[in-house]
C-alpha cells in the first residue's frame, strides 16, 4: 500500500515538474541507476521463494508428511512430539505460564529424516510450513541475509494467517551455514548481521499479541559449529538427535518405502535390513528405487531379492555411502563392545542398558549405560573402574581377533584422562602433588603404571568369560543390538536393577 502511494506521488510530481517546464532528465537518470543497483543486489532475492507446505491450496496434498511416514527414530519422534505438544495446546500452556517454545534443533547425519520430521511436525500441529536452507540466507552483500530472515518470518505469519492456521513452522536446513560462531567468517559482517537478525526474530516470538505462533525448527549435522547464542535457553532450547537407524529402524524404513511396490516372494526385508548396516533412510530409499529401476529394465512385474542385492552395491559404488562396514570389521566391533559391556557389569552390576554395533556419531558401536545419578565425588575405586571399562574394548579385540585397532583410540584417551585426574587429586602412589609443579615425566610414568595394572585385571576377566562373551558377540552380530538384560543372560550375570535405572 505504502509502495503504491509512493510510486503514484512520484509520478504525479514528475508530470507536474514537466508541465512547469523543468528539466527532469537528471532525476530520471538517477532513479534509473538506483533501480538497476537495487535489482543487481536484491534481484535474486526477490525471485527466491521459500518452500511452502500447508497453504489452503495444499491441503491434503500428497506432500503432507506425518510421523507414520518416518521409519525408526522412535526416541527422536517421541522427544519431538513431546516438545510440539506446547504448540498443540497453547491455551493450557499459557494457563500454566509455560514459556513458549521458540526453536527445536534436529541434529544428525545427512539423510536420516530431519526434513521429514519438520514436515511431520507441521501436520501434527496443523501449522503452516515454510522451509529454507541456511545457504539461502547468505550472500556477499551486507544486509541481504538479514532481510531474508525478516522476510521468512513475515511470510510465515502472513501466509499462515491467510490460510487460517494458528501456527507456522519455519524449517531452516543446514543452520550451521548461517548460525556459525560469530566473528569466524572472512566476510563476517554479513554473516554476523544475518545471525543477529535471526536472534532478534526469535526473541520476538511468543508475545501475547501474536495471532500466529511461530516455531523455528532447524537441522544440522554439526551442532558444535553453532554460535552459543543460538543454543541459549529461549532460542533453540530443545535438541533432538536423529541418528542413523539401527536394524529395527531400517526394517521399518524399508517397509515404508516398499509399501506401494510389488515385491517378489523371495524378498525378505529383515535380511535386507541386516545387510544394510550403516545406511541412512535416504540410502535405503535410493536402494529401493534402484532395485525398482533394475526390475523395470528387465521388464519384470515384481522386484526380486537379486535386484535388491545389486541395488545395495550400486548405492555403495555410487559413493553415496561414506561408511559401510565389512563383516570382519563388524565382528571386531562386536567383540570390542561386549568387552566394554562385561567390565561395565562387573564394575556396576545391572548398569548396561543396550549394546549395539550400529554406527552413531563418530563411534562405530556403543554401549548405553543407565544414566548415573549426578555424582560430584569419585573414589579411587570409581575412577579405576571407569579406566577398566575404557580399556576393555581393546583387550577384548586383542583376545578374540589377535590384534587391536584404531577403534580404541578414543577409549585410551579417556583412560589417560581418568588416570591423570586420579593422580592430580592425590589418589595415586605419587601421593599429594601440586599439579602445576609436578614433572610431566612423573605424571606420565604413573599414568602408564596405573593403566597397565588395570589392564591386567581386565585381561583376566575377559579370559574368564571368553566363552560367554563369544556367544554374546554372535548374538550382537545377528541382531545388531541387544538389550542389557539379554547381555546379562548370555554372559550368565545376575539381573540386578541399579538404583539409578528405575
Ligand atoms: P539432510 O541433512 O541431508 O538435509 P535429512 O536428514 O533432512 O537430510 P531427509 O531429507 O528428511 O533427510 O530425507 C531424505 C529422504 O530419505 C526422504 O525423503 C525419505 O525418502 C528418506 N528417509 C530418510 N530418513 C527416513 C526415515 N526415517 N523414514 C523414511 N524415509 C526416510
What labels would you give this structure?
502 residues, alpha/beta, Rossmann fold, six-stranded mixed β-sheet, 9% strand, binds adenosine-5'-triphosphate
Report on the structure:
By secondary structure, the protein is α/β, with parallel strands linked by helices. It has helices at residues 2-19, 25-47, 74-88, 90-95, 114-124, 144-162, 175-179, 188-204, 228-231, 247-258, 269-275, 281-297, 305-317, 327-347, 380-401, 409-424, 440-464, 466-479, 484-491, and strands spanning 51-53, 103-107, 128-133, 167-173, 213-220, 236-241, 352-356, 366-369, 481-483. Helices cover 54% and strands 9% of the residues. α15 packs antiparallel against α16 (409-424) and α15 (380-401) packs across α17. The chain has a six-stranded mixed beta sheet with strand order 1-3-4-5-2-6, sandwiched between helices. The model is unreliable at 54-62 (pLDDT under 50). The longest helix is centred in the last third of the chain and has 25 residues, at 440-464.
Number of helices: 19
What name is given to the CATH topology of the largest domain? Rossmann fold
How many discrete domains?
4
H/E element string?
A: HHEHHEHEHEHHEHEHHHHHEEHHHHEH
- Fraction of residues in H or I helices: 40-55%
